[in-house]
């Protein structure tokens, strides 16, 4: 193994979790056939939802733009296969845990005809970075590690900062999920190609690809590709298999030994992080003109007979994918999109796979931990917190709704990784409580801002009334002075004028 | 197919309050057996009485507070309080003394402050202090440890039981015949009578480095404590803090005047120092919560134990030290918040 | 006996000194009245609805700080504001004289009925109503505090409250 593990920073806390990944990674990536119907939500990314530009009944081709990006933070959506648009309506989506959201419904025609390719674009390394970034925007590329932040905008923001390192996140520390692992095994060349494109777009010359040390095949494949292309700018780094070392801020700390400032971004300290799948998607778009219309997803859990990784078109419903994977077993009691620590449970399998769907976890019921006990201040939660918070204190202040102390103890820095939940002997749902507390803090901040605005408007109004009063007084004084000077005739004139005004 | 919605995480949690408490009790078993061997079956009676009254007090308070009784009892925390109290009391203790301590500890020091997780003071120590203040005579009734060469009248089990239930010794025996000074008692009175440390150490009550019998118990408690450390039930900061806080001034004073100051080893293995370091001070609810804070908390307890033993009028100062440091915990926690990742010196949190 | 008298005298002396020091310190806080009025005003919700009986939040804050007005007269502030005021001023928190409204509401003008009389516009304490004489009026919802002062003056009753949160 040539991957180096030297000069890594250290991560406080974290947990070693049982991986549950070997069942899925034992199989190759299976291709899910294009289903009869594709459901494409218009909000598959952070920021404003895309605006549909197709009408009902319109025929579209695979890869055709069907919703364009709207506003400064958005991404376009492309048709995942050829067919006819049959509806633009609300449909259950995973982002809302199964509640409906606006979607474009595409009935496929089975032919899967791609849109014509443009003439060969000039090689990417001859393009200026902003041109390249515009191209990336048009590909619908968003962060595929789960955050789905529009990649082009992230890169544009990064270009305004002083950068030193590009870091590709192949860590995938959460149990059950293995889509990035198999991507690196079977498509290592695309990952490295994407790294090269990113290095050009950012004007950087160092890229670290970080992979967990429990992924020897992926490390091996990447090493082979790197040896082949001998690009010295790209270095492979192993990180220990501790959850949550794959979080963006945590990974930056591990690889560069720098702390991302609270409320800040990795670009503030010279680093840009991209998931390996995002890099591969960029390569596919720029080099092969394939927009983001499919992704690799892990289908696993004891509710599925055989765990596997699949490549499915964006818009395939979970029901279709589970069917392909062999249907449900008797233990299928929970449907979770994402991993067991940070995923969300959805109420129906009619939700479509979207760009963010890295894992479909069908599980039996989580064993009930028993009633919630009071906090015994054992401090185990503080020992595992990767951000070095004191969850026991945060919990205390959250119960007291003490906004000031919650902020000063760092509630807004909580990454909601779930480590504290797992170790708490009193079974307090800490992560859920902190999420609610964060919402409450935001609410209070909003109220305060509104009160401040009202106060200023009130004071401005008082000033306006005073000014009016002042002006009226001056006018009156002037009139009085003029009347005195003018004598009785002038007074009579004024009275006549006033009478006429009243009559009007 | 439809499913229910739950909140993350979806993995089974690993720990339980009851299993933590059970491990603590298990770790105490070797020391308990040694205690019974050396000091007779009185320990068992004390334990039973303390456990009964602790459990009854807890159940009654939960009823009055309209909470679920079964949950409170099944976390074994009342049992741990009872066990620590039983270790702290002499094996010949009338039942009403034990009961007072147990009830005060559980009802006043624990439930009147809000129950598990909300008590500021260590319940076992609070109960012990009440006994110390209300029944000082009974806490002097330490019997001699079973060592072949000490001239001693042993009580049978029945006689022990009779004493526990009625407070009466068998006829023909009086307190003086039965009780002996503890090693700490002996050291304190010996030093007060202008003997040197070495002379006091030659008393038959003294063992190799603690007191006869006592040092065995202290060793087994230390072993139990190390087992808890390995199992990660307790963390190293508090025991190390107590040890340093106790041994540091002891070493200095011993080096200055070895004649009138016993050495650090004596302090560590006598009295309840080991029990305090591993089992009493580590009570998570009443101890400090940040890692640095725990070291300070432990060191404070150790220092106070040394101070009370050397310059105070009590032979052993564990209970008072713990209670005083319990009072300091909020301040310690406030002053020792760890560095949050991403928060730099002088920058405002967002 | 002398030992006891020495102990008693020492303790009494310490108590006397400590008491004097404390009263000296407490006399020093809070700082000038103006500062306190600002601090109290910060805690009020700035609805400017005059339900407390004072013509706006700042006058009420002044009354609380300088004239000892009751701190439980502000329904929009809710019980939270009462307890925060109590903490700031060292007074007993009391239940509100009138229950706090549930949720947040804004006023809405039914444009079809508006006759452009400007009575409501003049009544709004935060100038959230836009409109000129004889021309239709409208309320800027993002600036409306829900104080209800515009509802009464309207001669055609075209203003209603709508819950937004």
Shape, per Cα inertia axes of chain B = globular
Number of strands of chain A: 17
Rounded to the nearest angstrom, the distance between the terminal CA atoms of chain B is 43 Å
Tell me the CATH topology of the largest domain in chain A: Rossmann fold
Overall helicity of chain A: 25-40%
Rg from Cα of chain B: 22 Å
Helix content of chain B: 55-70%
Main pleated sheet of chain A: 6 strands, mixed
The CATH architecture term of the largest domain in chain A is 3-Layer(aba) Sandwich
Range of strand content of chain A:
15-25%
CATH class category name of the largest domain in chain A: Alpha Beta
The total count of helices of chain A amounts to 15
Secondary-structure element series of chain B: HHHHHHHHHHHHHHHH
Summed up:
With 504 residues, chain A is an alpha/beta fold. In chain A, 37% of the residues lie in helices and 16% in strands. Chain A has 15 helices and 17 strands.
Q: How would you characterize this protein structure?
A:
- With 504 residues, chain A is of the alpha/beta class.
- In chain A, 37% of the residues lie in helices and 16% in strands.
- Chain A is built from 15 helices and 17 strands.
- Chain A has helices at 22-25, 129-138, 151-159, 179-186, 188-202, 216-229, 248-256, 276-288, 318-324, 380-384, 391-399, 403-408, 419-423, 430-486, 488-503; strands spanning 30-31, 37-41, 51-52, 59-60, 65-68, 77-78, 83-92, 100-108, 165-170, 207-212, 234-239, 271-275, 294-300, 308-313, 334-337, 344-345, 359-363.
- The longest helix of chain A has 57 residues, at 430-486.
- By secondary structure, chain B is mainly alpha-helical.
- Chain B folds into 2 domains: 17-179, no CATH class; 183-332, no CATH class.
- Chain B is 61% helix and 0% strand.
- Chain B has helices at 17-39, 42-64, 69-74, 77-88, 95-111, 123-134, 157-166, 175-178, 183-192, 197-201, 214-230, 237-256, 264-269, 273-280, 291-311, 318-335.
- With 165 residues, chain C is mostly helical.
- Chain C has 2 domains: 30-101, 3-methyladenine DNA Glycosylase II, Chain A, domain 3 (Orthogonal Bundle); 104-165, Alpha-Beta Plaits (2-Layer Sandwich), CATH 3.30.70.
- Chain C has helices spanning 2-28, 33-43, 57-67, 78-89, 119-123; strands at residues 105-109, 129-130, 138-139, 159-163.
- Chain C has a two-stranded antiparallel ribbon with strand order 1-4.
- The radius of gyration of chain C is 25 Å and the shape is rod-shaped.
